[in-house]
Amino acid sequence: MTDPFKDAKLRLQWGKKHIRDLKRRIRSFIKKDIYLHVHDYDSDRRQEVRKIRFTEPLPDEFALRIADVVANLRFALDYAVFAILKDKIPSKNHNLIKFPFADTRSDLQRGAALKHFPEDIKPLFMSFNPYKTGNNFLWALNRICNIEKHRLLSPIKIACRVNGVTPGQTFNAENIPLGRFDRSKNEVIYSILDTKEGVEYNSQLTFAITFGEVEVVESQPVVIILDQFASMVQTILPIMEGEARRLGYIN
Fold first, then answer.
1. What is the pLDDT of residues 78-116, one digit of tens each?
2. What is the DSSP string of 73-85?
């Protein structure tokens, strides 16, 4: 028997493959010697501004691979909806068959997203809360996908931890865990320290490529969020399939 959800599952698996590839490439990039420590000293304020300056740009392929992952996960949801509804909706409206999203619950209930769906299947999609104040991650997946239709995201921020040590004393320096990347200078400020005579600072840096533009996931590591997106889609697909079979939409 043919699996009506085969295409959706293939898209999900392909998206997960892209996540694995992206993780390997990010690890390889971070391990390279591609940055310099830069210390600017303000003698009046007795502050030291510490920066990481990159000697080569973030590879464009990262943004392309992120776009591929998001598109495949979104397509997996759309393909599943099409498998359920293609025989229930007139062919002239097949271009309207896609996973429903909205900004609010009322928008989802009253808007166009569910307009052509049969009444008995609507509660299934409402149960996923695919709106900003419901399932934020599901909403964010769609939001990123929509952004990527018009331009590529360029996410990068640096996660750092900075500590200073003096004899017999531990000094906790000011910490900016996720500094904002200055694309014009190809650098990021990761800490501003009040200098003290005799203090030796030991910088321990942890790098993370993060989303920088999308609410809900902004400043969060890309690979972690993509894993969560994939897990979410993997959970949703069998729920959709089970309810569609129960209602007799698919065999």
1. 999 999 999 988 888 888 899 999 999 999 988 888 988
2. HHHHHHHHHHHHH
Burial class (CB in 10 A: 0-12, 13-18, 19+), 247: middle
Quickly tell me which residue has 């989802």 as its tokens: 108
* pLDDT at position 199: 52
Among residues 19, 63, 3, the alpha carbon closest in space to that of 229 is found at 19
Q: Which tens digits make up the pLDDT trace of 24-73?
A: 998 888 788 777 888 888 777 777 777 778 888 778 888 889 999 999 99
d(CA 19, CA 48): 38
DSSP E strands in the chain: the ranges are 35-42, 47-54, 157-166, 169-171, 178-182, 187-194, 200-205
DSSP string, 100-157: --BSSHHHHHHSSTTTTS-GGGHHHHHTT--BTTS-HHHHHHHHHHHHHTTS-----E
Residue with tokens 């750092």: 160
| Threshold 0.90, pTM exceeds | no
**Which amino acid is present at 57?**
P
The Cα 110–Cα 165 span in angstroms is 60
Phi/psi of residue 106, nearest 5 degrees: -65, -35
pLDDT tens-place string over residues 157-208: 555 444 443 433 333 334 433 456 677 777 777 667 666 554 555 555 667 7
Contact 200, 140 (CB under 8 A): no
Nearest-angstrom CA–CA distance, 17 and 208:
20
